[in-house]
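Record now logged underneath.
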Amino acid sequence: MTEPRPNDGASPWARGFGLVTVTFDRPVQAGALRPGDVFSLHSAPETPLVVRWIEDLEVAAGVDLVAVALPGAGPRLHLPRQSTVRIHRMVRTVTMKCLICSATETLDIDLPRDGEPISLVCERHIPSKPASGEVSDV
């Protein structure tokens, strides 16, 4: 499982959810990229690339490519749809049910940073932290 994340204001934990995740370290295929994702090629892992837009291309029967537009006016990057890339930022919207009350919550999760969500407990069941200066009974 991933380590607890700091309250950086951007993660689901900052909103008061109890979220269990596992490390997101599985390969991601080029065909799964979406605008806004940040990835690098295995041959250049230190060069992050931002997806501006992506388009499916069928070059020939059984040969599927994706055309990835990067920021700037340069040419599009063509990758085999099944090829894997190293993902640095991949925000996805997930809908999960609270394990306790079955309330549905929709969260934006940056998979490489936050991990892949497994289960959720909504903020109604998370004890609030005492205000500064207060003494907690716990």
User: Anything to note?
Assistant: The chain has two domains: 12-24+91-125, 28-89.
